[in-house]
Each structure stands twice: as structure tokens, then as C-alpha cells.
Task: structure prediction
Amino acid sequence: VKLVESGGGLVQPGGSLRLSCAASGSTFGIKAMGWWRQAPGKEREPVASITEGGSLKYSDSVKGRFILSRSSAKNTVNLQMNSLKVEDTGVYYCNALQSSFGDDFNYWGRGTQVTVSS
Result:
């Protein structure tokens, strides 16, 4: 599975950005897709995810501000980020969890930088 991210950039506090992640390759068996982020000096943390069945999960820090959606083809996820805060700054990574022959595999994109600053 190959994950390609797009979007990101520099935005002022209170602004909005949209991230997209497209999965390609052998996408059969993907159970969930989502976004993680890593701020400077901190560990990578989950932001939002959606399961194959459409169940959504958000971290408490972004709930009510970020919206995760999925394309009808189920191989693209979009993260609409609103009311951005300085603390949302970091590298955002797309993630896909795939089940294959009874084992689960995690795939990661290369990451896209999001900077919230005045």
C-alpha cells in the first residue's frame, strides 16, 4: 500500500487547511485509515481515523474542529482542519491499517508539514 499526502502549509491561528491522502497499490483488506501528527520534540499521536465500516474517531484535542471524510472509492481520506491553533503545528502522517492473511500491517505516508503561526 502506498499513501500519498497532499495539502498542508502555513496558516494563521483560526484559519483552515485541508489534507488529503490517497492510497494505491494493493488496497484490499484496508480496515482503517486516518491521520497522525508529530510536533517538534513530541511523540507521534493519533488525530482522526475512519474504519472500513465508516466509524469515526477523533482525539479530544481536535474534536469539534477537524472533520475526517472518505471518498466513495474508500481509498482517499480527507482531513478538514478548522479553527487551527498554534499547538496543531506538526508533521501530519497518513496511516492505513491493513489485514492480510490474519496479520495486521501499518502503512505510513511521508508526512506533510502543517504550521500554524501568526
